[in-house]
Amino acid sequence: MPPSTAAPIPPNSPPGAVTPHPPIEGYYEKPAEKRAFLTTIFDDTAVDYDKVEHWLSLGSGRWYRRQTLMRAGLKPGMHVADVATGTGLVAREALALMTQDGRVQGSLIGIDPSPGMLAQAKKSLGIDTRVATAENLPFDDAAFDFLSMGYALRHVEDIASAFREYHRVLKPGGKVCILEITRPTTAFGRGFLKLYLHTVGAIISKMTELAPRTPELWDYYWETIDKCVPPAQVVAALESVGFKNVERQVYFGVFSEYRATR
Prior knowledge:
Blueprint: H1 34-56, H2 61-72, E1 79-83, H3 89-98, E2 99-100, E3 103-104, E4 107-112, H4 115-125, E5 128-131, E6 144-150, H5 159-169, E7 170-181, H6 187-207, H7 214-227, H8 231-240, E8 244-251, E9 255-261
Helix pairs in contact: 1-4, 2-3, 5-8, 6-7
């Protein structure tokens, strides 16, 4: 039987809370422990993240991220928030699309709860950064034209709270673009993706020196993908906080793009 896609709501959660998945056994025990676990493992693996992502995506990640941002309507001159920016993989492609005549037109801020990840983003891109979570963005109302989030929706504590913040900080007419890896719908697809993430991570660790927790991070990724709430629930959560024109497109059966307008 496939695992349940209905994640339990932690105690004291606000009405309408949507947790992306249940606690992941073997990594942390209670929902309240999730944020501390994620911050430490991302800090511990930040130096390896870009390298492993490049191998896992077979070098296609940059092209796909840029195409996704183009489809979502990112243009030069926009003020952009890249939530859960990590090492800046999405931010890098956003900056490329915002550059005209050799200069970035507009502004971009990377937000992430991991200081280690933000240090890597700042080192490689020189972007402005903020240490913060998706549920508590330290910005005024209607501050941004565009908000992106790449492969990190599974790591928030409450999807609905995060989406309320996204709606708040976007200007009227502002765009949100969320990239995510979705659990395959077939047993073969699930088995292949699990094996792929584990095997490629193991091969990379044998070929090059990695931080001790890097293989653990990519095994954890599979667990969150497998147990994440279904796409229909993500779409419903976007609509419930007031977003319009909500749509989801899926590529290769696993790469979901969620787009909506403030």
